[in-house]
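Below sits my pick:
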Amino acid sequence: MSSAFVKEPEGGEAFEDLPDRPISPHPNFVTPEGLARIEAELDRFHQEHAAAQATNDKPALAKTARDLRYWTARRNAAQVVQPPQDAAEVHFGSTVTIERDGRRQTFRIVGEDEADPAQGTLSYVSPLARALTGKGVGDVVHVGNSDAEILAIA
């Protein structure tokens, strides 16, 4: 088939319309550290975008523009929640130690963009965090296929 009849993007044109990153429908609660992370991401992507403009790197321009839109939206929607003063119940920002399946685990409940379970942080909308919220030391919650007992709240 002649290439005259085929409309295929040339160069970086395929990257110009990258789909936006999905934005959660939940309120964007963040810890003060989470807000600092969002601002750091915005700074980083502004720098990467400027570098991509300088070299006319169309794929990088598309990616950084998309990421800038995401982090700008997250910054605009951010609602900073101060750490809880009360350790009697689990709240957003609490650090909770639980025991489940014979293992002791400690997590801090944070915003969605801050969450990294491998680093000990859970999104406040995760099933475990939702089950723990409002509970106190000694309470047992059922999550998934197991029970978890709250051992400590800080």
Summary: Helices lie at 32-55, 58-77, 127-132. The mean pLDDT is 91.
